[in-house]
Amino acid sequence: MLVYVVKDCLVKALQLVLRAVSANSPYPILTGISIQALPEELIITGSSSSMSIQYKIHQGDRGVTVRRSGAIVVPARYFYDIIRRCTDEWIGLEILEGLKLTITSGKSHISLCGMDASEFPPIRGAKGSAFLTSFSIPAELLSESVRQVFPSVSTSESRPVLSGIYFEWGDKGLHLTATDGVRLASRIIQHEHQGCEGFSAIVPGKNAAEAAKLLQDADSAATIGISSNQICFSAQNLLIQSALIEGAYPVVQSIIPKRYLSEAITETAAFLHAVERAAVLAGEGILQLSTAGKALFLLSKTAEIGDVRDEVSLTDRSGENFALALNSGFLLDILRSMKSMFVILRYTGSWSPLIIQPSDAIESAIYLLSPIRTASH
Amino acid sequence: MLVYVVKDCLVKALQLVLRAVSANSPYPILTGISIQALPEELIITGSSSSMSIQYKIHQGDRGVTVRRSGAIVVPARYFYDIIRRCTDEWIGLEILEGLKLTITSGKSHISLCGMDASEFPPIRGAKGSAFLTSFSIPAELLSESVRQVFPSVSTSESRPVLSGIYFEWGDKGLHLTATDGVRLASRIIQHEHQGCEGFSAIVPGKNAAEAAKLLQDADSAATIGISSNQICFSAQNLLIQSALIEGAYPVVQSIIPKRYLSEAITETAAFLHAVERAAVLAGEGILQLSTAGKALFLLSKTAEIGDVRDEVSLTDRSGENFALALNSGFLLDILRSMKSMFVILRYTGSWSPLIIQPSDAIESAIYLLSPIRTASH
């Protein structure tokens, strides 16, 4: 291998693929990143045991000149730290003997011990294997939707399917769902596509969130390809591949209450700030909400620390007054992921979940939060 | 106590005094911050067992209105997190009953359990007790000087005096010295002052560095007052008090070599970047330096990881060529604290320390770094 690559291109590629690499992986090969020089492009890949991130620098884009093909895996952290400290515009990467990579920049010559590239897990998506389903949606919309449902993913390992986000093609488009049993978040990405009906996949929550972060700045469409045990997100030079979680996702549509007893609408920002103040003392503790006329009252009491009483105005309210207790941390997660200027609260009874929806996308996003049973409720 | 204070003033005060507070102090009272309302000012104080930081908000500056004097100690982290989340410009602080502070902002009412202010360690400097010595120097100069010598402070607890920075009035002004036995940093702040001759004090390194950080942005003179067991730094509304380390500081002037065998001058930035690249693989390991003509060669080898060879041009060189091995982390600390465009290296022999000095302040700053004995040296 002998390539010359523009430092800034390589630094950008490394920053992206490093997100998949764990410094303390039990598999030494996964603590490294793979550098693969093909005749027309340089491919940089980082992998964990359940996901891979790959970035391609094309010769046509003038980011790289490949003189001799080849491949090696080098320790991720050392390689990145050296590259970002190089001061020349171009960096030379060369394999002179065996498993050693020589990095040249100006008068600096760094020789880095590497590992055998053939031991690195291959990326299926890159090899163009047939997907069962494949479709494109705007990257930013996918990214935002994943980030909205992600907080509701279960962090417990007792039911592995709940640690994933459920991707399902329904009649309105792509449905994303996450629930941990206490809360549920569901978002529909309205999109028409032929031949996707009935497809579904459970994507590990953390991997989906990582993909959402990486796709956030891609101002193009993201292509999603799904095989029997893998999902692949790609946009521009970037490709993210994740394993799927096996199993059957619970049928959640039946949990969502069809009717409500009362409705209250308030400003998202003011409500968020009030919940944030309450959460300072309560942490993920109990927050009591109650309505009286056009006011929503918040109360949290924490023994030996103190209590917070707050009030936000309701812009609209119908039905009976209500009072219930919620986990303040869970409510915060929902409000923080909401971009809508107003939030709608729908009370469905003292033992059934509160429905929370953004006013501007009431058709496509819904959150459920189960109340906490307290002595006074 | 009943005071109204401008949120931004209080947030600023808390950010400063919180630097002294440790959330896991073994003394519960030190996990809190003291709020003291006097007729004309609000005094906010945070303390650890060896230092205190105090900030005053004056009624005259329109930052506070004191209606009723009083004092209380409240949990630092909770108080700060609530205050910064308040959305109104003014915040009310009131003690209504016993040890409870009521915080009011808009429609928010937060009641926070506090502690007895009489248990909080008093600040001596604030009470105007007589100092043995007191003098003023520009805050920025003091701050920069402390940060230059601080990296050489010993992190070992075997000789407590070496964990401090030695402040001493010499014939040229205020001398600051730090050494851990392997390296030494000395800086003279040239300043004339009557009646300070012969004074000296050992200030805990961490406390001095904290004071340096806090005084960094004060565009005024800093006043330093020293009593038998305390040092007090003050500037504008800020006061920092630290305990002193008891004991006799070693006489270091005799260690500094008076002659050198050769001298090399190079650009600080280029040298720093080369040492940074070498330190990626070597960490705080061995870096070999050698000169040949007008070039300075760097070499670091790390078994099973790789090696770095680098070269920087010398702008000037006199005397014999030299080669020696140094701790690369220690050399980095020195170069990073240097503002000078050029750095002077003075070789004094294979077993005696390398002298490193900034070219623009050769009179006032000196660093010594002992070589490491390796098989090849």
Automatic annotation (TrEMBL), chains A, B:
Keyword Nucleotide-binding assigned: no
Limits of the DNA polymerase III beta sliding clamp N-terminal domain: 3-122
Keywords of the record: Cytoplasm, DNA replication, DNA-binding, DNA-directed DNA polymerase, Nucleotidyltransferase, Transferase
Chief location bin: cytoplasm
Location of this chain's protein in the cell: Cytoplasm
A GO CC term attached to the entry: cytoplasm
Gene3D superfamilies associated with the record: 3.70.10.10, DNA Polymerase III, subunit A, domain 2
GO MF term (any one): DNA binding
Residues of the DNA polymerase III beta sliding clamp central domain: 137-250
NCBIfam families: dnan
Name this protein carries in UniProt: Beta sliding clamp
Species this chain originates from: Paenibacillus oryzae
